[in-house]
Each structure stands twice: as structure tokens, then as C-alpha cells.
Amino acid sequence: MRLRRLTGLERHKIEEELAELREKIAWYQKVLADVGLVMQIIKDELAEVRAKFADKRRTAITSAAKDLGRRGFLSPRKTWSSPSPRPAT
Asked: What single-letter DSSP state applies at residue 74?
């Protein structure tokens, strides 16, 4: 192939890419200008996520859960800490 033809092919590819980018820019500007469209896009994406990841709960929630309170999370052991001596300067 001649160089002129190769250059023409590359130019054609770049022009196609530019046209695609302009279409995307126009779409994004339309979305940013319309709050209803933004909400619809969010609803659609959440529906896709739900369809992909929704499944039955793997753990059972019962009313027999006991109230642990503050002490339920603390260790029964008493611990002490003391500052270490400062190094001599």
C-alpha cells in the first residue's frame, strides 16, 4: 500500500473516533441537563445490580437475640498499660 492510502485510512479512523466522542459528549450533556433522566439511569443500574446479586438471606434473623449491652463486647480480663521511658537525648 502506498503511504497516502495508509494515511487516509488512519485519518478515517480518527474521524470516526471523533464522531463517536461527540455523540458521547452530547449524551452526557443531555443527562446532566435532565434530572429525571439521571434518576431513570440510577433506577436502571440499581435494577441490574439487584438482578445480578440479589439472593436469599443466608442468616436467619430471630427475635431471640439477646442484648449484649456495653459489657458484652468487653473482655473479662483487666489490662494495664504504662508509658515506656523516654530515651535519653
From this structure: S
Q: Which residue has the cell 508509658?
A: 83
Q: Is the separation of the CB atoms in 30 and 37 below 8 Å?
A: yes
Domain ranges of the chain: 27-54
The structure's pTM equals 0.49
Q: Which amino acid is at 52?
A: K
DSSP 7-68: HHHHHHHHHHHHHHHHHHHHHHHHHHH-HHHHHHHHHHHHHHHHHHH----SS---TT----
**pLDDT tens per residue across span 28-80:** 999 999 999 999 999 999 999 999 988 887 777 776 656 666 665 666 667 77
Q: Which of 34, 36, 16 is nearest to 24 (CA)?
A: 16
